[in-house]
Specification:
The protein is an alpha/beta fold. It has one domain: Spore Coat Polysaccharide Biosynthesis Protein SpsA, Chain A (Alpha-Beta Complex), CATH 3.90.550.10. It has 8 helices and 11 strands. The strands form 2 sheets. An 8-stranded mixed sheet has the order 1-4-3-2-5-8-7-9, sandwiched between helices. Strands 6-11-10 form a 3-stranded mixed sheet. α1 packs parallel to α2 and α1 crosses α8. The longest helix is centred in the N-terminal third of the chain and has 15 residues. The N and C termini lie far apart (about 50 Å).
């Protein structure tokens, strides 16, 4: 185990799905994700990297079979931290398509780079904690580094930018060191935090089909693209399914699906779900 990571138990596989929980809200999201991954029948480890999460929120993750690894934020400079603080970042790069929740702290996003320190694994698939898995995705462990889906949720123009909510990686201390060297240089500003950084660090990233990272806004913005039987991973970008928000009625079938994996309602049979009209 590399410096900065404290695991509760040893790895049991050479492959792992990895997510990041930086507070109680994302720990709840991680629980739904862990349950959904486990339901696909995978033999891979399911790892939750966590920072400021109370033990009461970690206990359900342990019970669900997650391998918990405590970590900290990256040791970035005060100037970098100030530039990427929530208010400063949103002032320079406001989100205009949806609303980020109050518990979202942009600087925390960079902690996902710590997965490259998980060198006990030959390959990992990172999935944001605001997502659930609907179909077994183990084949992604055989995909090269770095694969991610385009950031498609509104128009075809979205294909020009990747979304870092799901990606494939090969843990490596050398890669992690190179990332730290590139990340925090004088005057550096990553407009969409880890997403912008990873797209620059891996300029020749391989494109995954959008069905490996289906963004929830596709449900009402691009319904012709939605097909339940083709979706592997559903990603609740912007507003989260455990929040009260102004798009909840539009997204009700997706929220009810998430609630089932979070233990907040009945677990829905995917075969009963219909595509948007």
């Amino acid at each position: 185990m590399s410096d900065g990571l404290i695991a509760e138990r040893a790895a049991e596989s050479r492959h792992a799905y990895v997510t990041l929980a930086t507070n109680e809200d994302y720990a709840l999201g991680a629980l739904a994700l862990v349950n959904s991954i486990r339901a696909t029948g995978t033999d891979a480890d399911i790892v939750v990297l966590y920072t400021s999460v109370p033990d009461a929120s970690l206990a359900p993750l342990r019970e669900a079979g997650a391998r918990l690894i405590r970590t900290g934020l990256l040791n970035t400079s005060p100037e970098f931290n100030a530039a990427h603080a929530r208010d400063a970042l949103h002032a320079r790069a406001a989100f205009t398509k949806g609303n980020k929740p109050p518990f979202h702290t942009p600087l925390d996003n960079f902690a996902k780079l710590r997965l490259w320190q998980l060198t006990e694994y030959a390959s990992v698939v990172f999935i944001d904690a605001d997502a659930i898995m609907l179909k077994n995705s183990d084949k992604l462990f055989g995909y090269p580094e770095f694969c991610a889906a385009p950031n498609v949720y509104e128009t075809a123009a979205d294909f020009h930018r990747m979304n870092s909510g799901v990606f494939t990686a090969r843990p490596s201390d050398e890669t992690f060191a190179a990332m730290l060297d590139r990340l925090d240089r004088p005057g550096m500003f990553w407009r969409r935090t880890d997403q912008t950084f990873l797209q620059e660090f891996f300029p020749d990233w391989h494109g995954l089909p959008v069905f490996f990272n289906m963004l929830q806004y596709v449900w009402f913005n691009m319904p012709d693209l939605w097909a339940w039987d083709e979706i592997y991973i559903l990603h609740y970008q912007y507003e989260k399914p455990w929040q009260d928000h102004d798009k909840a009625d539009q997204l009700r079938p997706l929220i009810d699906l998430w609630r089932g994996f979070a233990g907040q309602g009945p677990r829905l049979d995917l075969s009963s779900l219909t595509d948007p009209e």
